[in-house]
Amino acid sequence: MAMAEKGKVEEKHPMEQLLRMDRMPHIWCPGCGIGISVTAFVSALKKLEFDLNKMCVVSGIGCTGRVAGYIKLDSFHTTHGRAIPFATGIKMANPDLKVVVFSGDGDLVSIGGNHFIHAARRNIDITVILVNNFIYAMTGGQVAPTTPETAYTTTSPFGNFETPANIPQLAEAAGAVYVARWTALHVRRLEKSIVEAINKPGFSLVEIVAPCSMYYSRINRLGAGIDMMRFYHENSIIKHDEPTENLAVGYQKQIIVGKFIDRERPGFIESNRRWSAEAKG
Amino acid sequence: MSNVRKPYDLSEIKIPRGEIHLIKDRCKGCGFCVEYCPNNVLEVSDEFSEKGYHPPVVANPERCLNCGLCEIVCPEFAIWSTLKEEVEASIEG
Asked: Hey, are the CB atoms on B77 and A40 less than 8 Å from each other?
Protein backbone atom coordinates (compact mmCIF):
# COMPACT_ATOMS: atom_id res chain seq x y z
CA MET A 1 0.00 0.00 0.00
CA ALA A 2 1.44 3.32 -1.08
CA MET A 3 -0.22 5.16 1.77
CA ALA A 4 1.31 2.88 4.39
CA GLU A 5 4.77 3.48 2.98
CA LYS A 6 4.41 7.16 3.64
CA GLY A 7 3.67 6.31 7.25
CA LYS A 8 0.34 8.11 7.29
CA VAL A 9 -1.96 5.13 7.68
CA GLU A 10 -1.17 3.40 10.94
CA GLU A 11 -4.57 1.98 11.79
CA LYS A 12 -6.99 -0.22 9.97
CA HIS A 13 -10.62 0.58 9.40
CA PRO A 14 -12.77 -2.15 11.04
CA MET A 15 -14.47 -2.91 7.71
CA GLU A 16 -11.20 -3.52 5.86
CA GLN A 17 -11.32 -7.27 6.44
CA LEU A 18 -14.38 -7.44 4.16
CA LEU A 19 -13.16 -4.96 1.53
CA ARG A 20 -10.55 -5.18 -1.20
CA MET A 21 -8.43 -2.29 0.01
CA ASP A 22 -5.98 -2.58 -2.90
CA ARG A 23 -8.79 -1.22 -5.09
CA MET A 24 -9.45 1.81 -2.90
CA PRO A 25 -10.13 4.67 -3.29
CA HIS A 26 -13.32 3.61 -5.03
CA ILE A 27 -14.72 5.32 -8.13
CA TRP A 28 -17.82 6.82 -6.50
CA CYS A 29 -18.11 10.60 -6.48
CA PRO A 30 -18.03 12.71 -3.30
CA GLY A 31 -21.52 12.69 -1.77
CA CYS A 32 -22.64 9.51 -3.54
CA GLY A 33 -24.96 7.19 -1.62
CA ILE A 34 -23.53 3.91 -2.94
CA GLY A 35 -20.63 4.01 -0.47
CA ILE A 36 -23.13 4.22 2.39
CA SER A 37 -25.04 1.26 0.97
CA VAL A 38 -21.77 -0.70 1.01
CA THR A 39 -20.93 0.28 4.60
CA ALA A 40 -24.47 -0.73 5.66
CA PHE A 41 -24.06 -4.04 3.83
CA VAL A 42 -20.64 -4.77 5.35
CA SER A 43 -21.95 -3.81 8.76
CA ALA A 44 -24.90 -6.18 8.23
CA LEU A 45 -22.51 -8.98 7.20
CA LYS A 46 -20.70 -8.59 10.50
CA LYS A 47 -23.99 -9.04 12.36
CA LEU A 48 -24.99 -12.13 10.38
CA GLU A 49 -24.39 -15.41 12.09
CA PHE A 50 -23.38 -17.07 8.88
CA ASP A 51 -20.21 -18.45 7.35
CA LEU A 52 -19.15 -15.74 4.92
CA ASN A 53 -17.19 -18.27 2.87
CA LYS A 54 -20.60 -19.47 1.73
CA MET A 55 -21.75 -16.11 0.50
CA CYS A 56 -21.50 -14.77 -3.02
CA VAL A 57 -22.06 -11.19 -4.20
CA VAL A 58 -23.15 -10.66 -7.81
CA SER A 59 -23.28 -7.27 -9.53
CA GLY A 60 -24.18 -6.09 -12.99
CA ILE A 61 -22.85 -3.01 -14.73
CA GLY A 62 -23.06 0.59 -13.60
CA CYS A 63 -21.93 2.66 -10.66
CA THR A 64 -23.49 0.18 -8.22
CA GLY A 65 -22.19 -2.67 -10.36
CA ARG A 66 -18.73 -1.89 -9.02
CA VAL A 67 -19.70 -3.16 -5.56
CA ALA A 68 -18.80 -6.78 -6.37
CA GLY A 69 -15.27 -5.64 -7.12
CA TYR A 70 -14.83 -3.95 -3.75
CA ILE A 71 -16.27 -6.61 -1.43
CA LYS A 72 -13.81 -9.25 -0.32
CA LEU A 73 -16.09 -12.23 -0.65
CA ASP A 74 -16.64 -14.53 -3.60
CA SER A 75 -17.95 -11.95 -6.01
CA PHE A 76 -18.95 -11.84 -9.61
CA HIS A 77 -19.10 -8.82 -11.92
CA THR A 78 -21.44 -9.81 -14.71
CA THR A 79 -22.81 -8.45 -17.98
CA HIS A 80 -25.27 -5.57 -18.06
CA GLY A 81 -28.66 -6.41 -16.62
CA ARG A 82 -27.81 -10.06 -16.14
CA ALA A 83 -26.82 -10.10 -12.47
CA ILE A 84 -29.97 -12.03 -11.50
CA PRO A 85 -29.56 -14.80 -14.14
CA PHE A 86 -25.95 -15.33 -13.03
CA ALA A 87 -27.10 -15.37 -9.40
CA THR A 88 -29.83 -17.88 -10.30
CA GLY A 89 -27.20 -20.11 -11.89
CA ILE A 90 -24.96 -19.91 -8.83
CA LYS A 91 -27.86 -20.74 -6.52
CA MET A 92 -29.04 -23.65 -8.66
CA ALA A 93 -25.55 -25.11 -8.98
CA ASN A 94 -24.83 -24.79 -5.28
CA PRO A 95 -27.96 -24.29 -3.16
CA ASP A 96 -25.87 -24.03 0.03
CA LEU A 97 -24.58 -20.62 -1.00
CA LYS A 98 -26.23 -17.38 0.06
CA VAL A 99 -26.37 -15.24 -3.04
CA VAL A 100 -26.70 -11.46 -2.83
CA VAL A 101 -27.30 -9.37 -5.93
CA PHE A 102 -26.03 -5.82 -5.41
CA SER A 103 -26.80 -3.59 -8.35
CA GLY A 104 -28.47 -0.43 -9.51
CA ASP A 105 -31.91 0.54 -10.77
CA GLY A 106 -30.84 0.78 -14.40
CA ASP A 107 -29.21 -2.61 -14.29
CA LEU A 108 -31.90 -4.51 -12.40
CA VAL A 109 -35.26 -3.04 -13.38
CA SER A 110 -34.69 -1.67 -16.85
CA ILE A 111 -32.14 -3.70 -18.75
CA GLY A 112 -32.59 -6.69 -16.46
CA GLY A 113 -36.27 -5.99 -15.78
CA ASN A 114 -37.50 -9.30 -17.13
CA HIS A 115 -35.01 -11.27 -15.07
CA PHE A 116 -36.10 -9.34 -11.98
CA ILE A 117 -39.76 -10.20 -12.61
CA HIS A 118 -39.14 -13.87 -13.26
CA ALA A 119 -36.72 -14.39 -10.38
CA ALA A 120 -39.42 -12.92 -8.10
CA ARG A 121 -42.11 -15.05 -9.78
CA ARG A 122 -40.11 -18.24 -9.29
CA ASN A 123 -39.19 -17.12 -5.76
CA ILE A 124 -35.55 -18.06 -6.11
CA ASP A 125 -33.71 -17.79 -2.79
CA ILE A 126 -31.59 -14.71 -3.50
CA THR A 127 -31.39 -11.29 -1.87
CA VAL A 128 -31.48 -8.28 -4.15
CA ILE A 129 -30.05 -4.99 -2.89
CA LEU A 130 -31.11 -2.37 -5.40
CA VAL A 131 -29.55 1.09 -5.19
CA ASN A 132 -31.95 3.51 -6.84
CA ASN A 133 -30.41 6.84 -7.80
CA PHE A 134 -33.07 7.69 -10.43
CA ILE A 135 -30.63 7.97 -13.32
CA TYR A 136 -28.08 6.12 -15.45
CA ALA A 137 -25.13 7.71 -13.70
CA MET A 138 -22.09 5.92 -15.09
CA THR A 139 -22.92 6.56 -18.73
CA GLY A 140 -23.58 10.28 -18.34
CA GLY A 141 -26.96 10.87 -16.72
CA GLN A 142 -29.50 9.49 -19.18
CA VAL A 143 -33.17 9.09 -18.33
CA ALA A 144 -33.87 5.80 -16.54
CA PRO A 145 -37.16 3.93 -15.97
CA THR A 146 -37.03 5.17 -12.39
CA THR A 147 -36.50 8.86 -13.21
CA PRO A 148 -39.40 10.79 -11.61
CA GLU A 149 -41.72 12.82 -13.83
CA THR A 150 -40.54 16.35 -14.70
CA ALA A 151 -36.94 15.61 -13.61
CA TYR A 152 -34.23 16.78 -15.99
CA THR A 153 -31.59 14.41 -17.29
CA THR A 154 -29.15 14.70 -20.18
CA THR A 155 -31.62 12.89 -22.47
CA SER A 156 -34.72 14.65 -21.13
CA PRO A 157 -33.58 18.29 -21.34
CA PHE A 158 -37.19 19.56 -21.14
CA GLY A 159 -38.09 17.29 -18.24
CA ASN A 160 -39.08 13.63 -18.12
CA PHE A 161 -42.67 12.87 -19.20
CA GLU A 162 -42.60 9.12 -18.59
CA THR A 163 -44.24 7.46 -15.62
CA PRO A 164 -41.48 5.96 -13.48
CA ALA A 165 -41.42 2.34 -12.34
CA ASN A 166 -42.67 1.68 -8.83
CA ILE A 167 -40.12 -0.95 -7.82
CA PRO A 168 -41.77 -2.27 -4.59
CA GLN A 169 -45.09 -2.65 -6.40
CA LEU A 170 -43.41 -4.46 -9.27
CA ALA A 171 -41.67 -6.81 -6.84
CA GLU A 172 -44.86 -7.49 -4.90
CA ALA A 173 -46.89 -8.16 -8.05
CA ALA A 174 -44.21 -10.51 -9.34
CA GLY A 175 -44.14 -12.43 -6.07
CA ALA A 176 -41.24 -11.28 -3.88
CA VAL A 177 -41.50 -12.44 -0.26
CA TYR A 178 -39.68 -9.52 1.37
CA VAL A 179 -39.73 -5.92 0.16
CA ALA A 180 -38.27 -2.96 2.03
CA ARG A 181 -37.17 0.50 1.02
CA TRP A 182 -34.84 2.87 2.86
CA THR A 183 -32.90 5.94 1.85
CA ALA A 184 -29.13 6.19 2.20
CA LEU A 185 -29.76 8.27 5.32
CA HIS A 186 -31.53 5.47 7.24
CA VAL A 187 -28.31 3.49 7.66
CA ARG A 188 -29.14 1.64 10.86
CA ARG A 189 -32.59 0.58 9.68
CA LEU A 190 -31.12 -0.33 6.32
CA GLU A 191 -28.53 -2.52 8.02
CA LYS A 192 -31.27 -4.30 9.98
CA SER A 193 -33.33 -4.75 6.83
CA ILE A 194 -30.38 -6.27 4.95
CA VAL A 195 -29.88 -8.78 7.79
CA GLU A 196 -33.59 -9.68 7.67
CA ALA A 197 -33.57 -9.96 3.88
CA ILE A 198 -30.51 -12.24 3.83
CA ASN A 199 -32.03 -14.47 6.51
CA LYS A 200 -35.37 -14.64 4.70
CA PRO A 201 -35.71 -17.68 2.42
CA GLY A 202 -36.98 -16.65 -0.99
CA PHE A 203 -36.67 -13.63 -3.24
CA SER A 204 -36.11 -10.60 -1.03
CA LEU A 205 -35.63 -7.03 -2.17
CA VAL A 206 -34.14 -4.05 -0.33
CA GLU A 207 -34.40 -0.84 -2.31
CA ILE A 208 -32.04 1.97 -1.30
CA VAL A 209 -32.88 5.47 -2.46
CA ALA A 210 -29.45 7.06 -2.81
CA PRO A 211 -28.26 10.50 -3.84
CA CYS A 212 -26.48 10.85 -7.19
CA SER A 213 -24.47 13.96 -6.47
CA MET A 214 -22.90 14.39 -9.89
CA TYR A 215 -25.71 13.83 -12.40
CA TYR A 216 -29.20 13.72 -10.93
CA SER A 217 -28.68 16.46 -8.39
CA ARG A 218 -26.45 18.62 -10.58
CA ILE A 219 -28.70 18.62 -13.66
CA ASN A 220 -31.74 19.27 -11.46
CA ARG A 221 -29.87 21.88 -9.37
CA LEU A 222 -30.53 20.05 -6.11
CA GLY A 223 -27.14 20.81 -4.58
CA ALA A 224 -24.50 18.36 -3.40
CA GLY A 225 -24.97 14.92 -1.86
CA ILE A 226 -25.38 16.44 1.59
CA ASP A 227 -28.31 18.58 0.35
CA MET A 228 -30.04 15.46 -0.99
CA MET A 229 -29.45 13.78 2.37
CA ARG A 230 -31.05 16.79 4.10
CA PHE A 231 -33.98 16.46 1.70
CA TYR A 232 -34.39 12.79 2.69
CA HIS A 233 -34.19 13.80 6.33
CA GLU A 234 -37.06 16.23 5.93
CA ASN A 235 -39.20 14.38 3.41
CA SER A 236 -39.00 10.68 4.11
CA ILE A 237 -41.67 9.08 6.22
CA ILE A 238 -41.58 5.60 7.73
CA LYS A 239 -44.77 3.64 7.03
CA HIS A 240 -44.40 -0.08 7.51
CA ASP A 241 -46.89 -2.30 5.64
CA GLU A 242 -47.96 0.56 3.37
CA PRO A 243 -49.82 -0.75 0.29
CA THR A 244 -47.23 -0.81 -2.48
CA GLU A 245 -49.40 1.10 -4.98
CA ASN A 246 -48.76 4.23 -2.88
CA LEU A 247 -44.98 3.93 -3.15
CA ALA A 248 -44.31 5.71 -6.43
CA VAL A 249 -41.58 8.34 -5.99
CA GLY A 250 -42.42 11.80 -7.33
CA TYR A 251 -39.91 14.49 -8.20
CA GLN A 252 -38.76 16.04 -4.89
CA LYS A 253 -41.86 14.69 -3.17
CA GLN A 254 -42.30 12.69 0.01
CA ILE A 255 -40.54 9.31 0.00
CA ILE A 256 -42.32 6.53 1.90
CA VAL A 257 -39.82 4.09 3.42
CA GLY A 258 -40.20 0.99 5.55
CA LYS A 259 -40.81 -2.73 5.30
CA PHE A 260 -43.78 -3.37 3.06
CA ILE A 261 -43.94 -7.09 2.35
CA ASP A 262 -42.93 -10.01 4.55
CA ARG A 263 -44.74 -13.19 3.55
CA GLU A 264 -44.18 -16.88 2.88
CA ARG A 265 -44.32 -18.62 -0.50
CA PRO A 266 -42.81 -21.92 -1.63
CA GLY A 267 -39.38 -21.37 -3.10
CA PHE A 268 -38.06 -22.52 -6.46
CA ILE A 269 -35.74 -25.27 -5.21
CA GLU A 270 -38.34 -26.52 -2.74
CA SER A 271 -41.05 -26.68 -5.46
CA ASN A 272 -38.62 -28.33 -7.85
CA ARG A 273 -37.73 -31.07 -5.36
CA ARG A 274 -41.34 -31.66 -4.35
CA TRP A 275 -42.48 -31.81 -7.97
CA SER A 276 -39.70 -34.11 -9.11
CA ALA A 277 -40.40 -36.46 -6.19
CA GLU A 278 -44.09 -36.51 -7.12
CA ALA A 279 -43.42 -36.91 -10.83
CA LYS A 280 -41.02 -39.77 -10.32
CA GLY A 281 -43.50 -41.35 -7.92
CA MET B 1 -29.49 19.04 42.88
CA SER B 2 -31.24 17.85 46.04
CA ASN B 3 -34.63 17.70 44.35
CA VAL B 4 -33.36 15.31 41.65
CA ARG B 5 -34.21 11.69 42.33
CA LYS B 6 -31.20 9.41 42.16
CA PRO B 7 -31.97 6.38 39.95
CA TYR B 8 -31.48 3.09 41.80
CA ASP B 9 -29.30 1.63 39.06
CA LEU B 10 -27.11 4.72 38.69
CA SER B 11 -24.01 2.89 39.88
CA GLU B 12 -24.48 0.19 37.23
CA ILE B 13 -24.77 2.60 34.30
CA LYS B 14 -21.57 3.24 32.42
CA ILE B 15 -21.29 5.95 29.81
CA PRO B 16 -19.02 4.97 26.93
CA ARG B 17 -16.43 7.42 25.66
CA GLY B 18 -15.13 6.93 22.16
CA GLU B 19 -12.07 7.90 20.27
CA ILE B 20 -12.32 8.96 16.63
CA HIS B 21 -9.89 7.57 14.06
CA LEU B 22 -9.65 9.37 10.78
CA ILE B 23 -7.72 8.66 7.59
CA LYS B 24 -7.68 12.11 6.05
CA ASP B 25 -6.33 11.11 2.67
CA ARG B 26 -9.31 8.88 1.99
CA CYS B 27 -11.86 11.61 2.77
CA LYS B 28 -13.68 13.21 -0.17
CA GLY B 29 -15.24 15.96 1.93
CA CYS B 30 -18.91 14.96 1.55
CA GLY B 31 -19.67 16.24 5.06
CA PHE B 32 -22.03 13.38 6.05
CA CYS B 33 -20.17 12.58 9.28
CA VAL B 34 -20.10 16.24 10.33
CA GLU B 35 -23.81 16.70 9.57
CA TYR B 36 -25.09 13.47 11.13
CA CYS B 37 -22.87 13.04 14.20
CA PRO B 38 -25.58 13.05 16.89
CA ASN B 39 -23.30 14.72 19.44
CA ASN B 40 -21.61 17.28 17.17
CA VAL B 41 -18.14 15.92 17.74
CA LEU B 42 -16.86 16.79 14.27
CA GLU B 43 -16.41 19.99 12.32
CA VAL B 44 -15.26 20.73 8.79
CA SER B 45 -11.63 21.84 8.90
CA ASP B 46 -10.00 24.60 6.87
CA GLU B 47 -7.01 22.49 5.93
CA PHE B 48 -6.75 20.74 2.58
CA SER B 49 -6.13 17.03 2.25
CA GLU B 50 -3.83 15.52 -0.36
CA LYS B 51 -6.75 15.29 -2.79
CA GLY B 52 -7.80 18.90 -2.16
CA TYR B 53 -10.84 18.24 0.02
CA HIS B 54 -11.60 19.61 3.47
CA PRO B 55 -11.55 16.61 5.83
CA PRO B 56 -13.42 16.75 9.16
CA VAL B 57 -11.62 17.59 12.36
CA VAL B 58 -12.44 16.22 15.81
CA ALA B 59 -13.51 19.46 17.49
CA ASN B 60 -15.12 18.07 20.65
CA PRO B 61 -13.41 14.73 21.37
CA GLU B 62 -14.84 14.51 24.88
CA ARG B 63 -18.40 14.35 23.53
CA CYS B 64 -17.93 11.15 21.47
CA LEU B 65 -20.07 8.29 22.82
CA ASN B 66 -18.75 5.63 20.41
CA CYS B 67 -22.12 5.23 18.69
CA GLY B 68 -20.40 4.34 15.42
CA LEU B 69 -22.69 6.38 13.17
CA CYS B 70 -19.74 8.13 11.52
CA GLU B 71 -18.30 4.76 10.58
CA ILE B 72 -21.47 3.56 8.88
CA VAL B 73 -22.39 6.89 7.25
CA CYS B 74 -18.93 7.46 5.73
CA PRO B 75 -18.93 6.34 2.07
CA GLU B 76 -15.12 6.34 1.93
CA PHE B 77 -14.22 4.03 4.86
CA ALA B 78 -12.23 6.93 6.28
CA ILE B 79 -13.58 7.41 9.81
CA TRP B 80 -14.46 5.13 12.72
CA SER B 81 -14.57 5.19 16.46
CA THR B 82 -13.32 2.83 19.14
CA LEU B 83 -14.21 2.56 22.80
CA LYS B 84 -11.72 4.50 24.90
CA GLU B 85 -13.17 4.16 28.37
CA GLU B 86 -16.41 3.81 30.24
CA VAL B 87 -17.14 6.40 32.88
CA GLU B 88 -19.51 6.29 35.82
CA ALA B 89 -22.83 8.04 35.29
CA SER B 90 -23.67 10.90 37.60
CA ILE B 91 -26.81 12.94 38.06
CA GLU B 92 -24.90 16.17 37.70
CA GLY B 93 -23.55 15.28 34.28
From this structure: no
**Hey, of B21, B34, B73, which one would you mutate to test binding to chain A, going by the most A CBs within 10 A of its CB?**
B73
Q: Which domains does chain A have, with CATH numbers?
A: 21-280 (3.40.50.970)
- Quote helix, strand, coil % in chain A, to nearest 5: 40, 20, 40
What is the ipTM score, two decimals? 0.86
**Residues A239 and A258: beta-carbon distance below 8 Å:** yes
Q: Is B70 on the interface with A (CB under 8 A)?
A: no
Closest alpha carbon to A138 in A105, A187, A182: A105
How many Å apart are CA B75 and CA A39, to the nearest integer?
A: 7
> Of A222, A202, A205, A204, which Cα lies nearest the Cα of A214?
A222
**Chain A: nearest CA to B63, how far in angstroms?**
21
Which chain A positions have a beta carbon within 8 Å of B31's beta carbon?
A: 31, 224, 226
**pLDDT tens, position by position, A188-217:** 999 999 999 999 999 999 999 999 998 999
C-alpha angle A226-A228-A234 in degrees, rounded to nearest 5: 105
SS3 A110: helix
Q: How far apart are CA B45 and CA B62, in angstroms?
A: 18
Do B77 and A187 make contact, defined as CB atoms within 8 angstroms?
no
Decide if B76 and A26 are in contact by the 8 Å CB cutoff: yes
Task: Give the 3-state secondary structure of residue B35.
Answer: helix
Do the Cβ atoms of B71 and A39 come within 8 Å? yes
Whether A28 and chain B come into contact, CB under 8 Å, resolves to yes
Q: Which of B30, B71, B73 sits opposite A30 (nearest CB)?
A: B30
User: Which SS3 state, helix, strand or coil, does residue B79 take?
Assistant: strand
Q: What predicted TM-score, i.e. pTM, was given to this entire model?
A: 0.90
- Give me the pLDDT at residue B92, please: 67
What is the rounded distance in angstroms from the CA atom of residue A203 to the CA atom of residue A59? 16
